[in-house]
Amino acid sequence: MDTRGAFAPETMAEAREQYVETGPAAKVVVRETAKAMSFDADEYADRVTGEVVETARDAIFASMLEVRVADRPTFEEWLETSETYDDSDVELLGSEHVDRIVWHAAPFAGTVIAASFHEEEEAAIGTLRRNAFGRIYHDRLRSGGDAPADVSADASTDER
C-alpha cells in the first residue's frame, strides 16, 4: 500500500484549519498565474475575483488530501481490519471488477471514497481527490457559522 498526500483530517475542525491554511497559497498561485498571462491592473481587477481564488483554494486543498493506493485485496483487508469503517461506509467510483483501488477516508464523516483503476494511477488519484472534496468537504467547509475565514474576499484588490 502506498500513501500519498498531506491532509488527512480526523475532524472537521482539522479540515477547516488545513483549508484556511491553503488560502494564502491560492492567492499567490492566482496572482502569479495572472502575471504570467500578462494581465494589466484593470484586467486583473475585472477577472481575478474572490470566486477565482476560492476555486484555486479548493483545488489546492483537494490535491493535498491523503490517499492510499493498493490492490483490491489490500483495500479489502484494510477495510476488514478497520475499527471505523465497514462496507456500507464505502462509496466506490468505478467497477468492482478492477484490480487496483485508491481511497480517501474521512473519519468525521464516517465515509470512505474509493475509485477503482487498471493502469492510470495518477488519473485515478486526481479523480478521487476531486470527488472526495466535492462529496465530503465542499459543503461542510462552506456551511455553518464556523466556516473558515474568507481569504478570497479581497482578491481583486491585491497588488500584482
TrEMBL record:
Q: Where is this region: Disordered?
A: 140-160
* Protein name in UniProt: DUF5809 family protein
**Organism field:** Halopenitus salinus
Q: Which Pfam families match?
A: DUF5809 (PF19125)
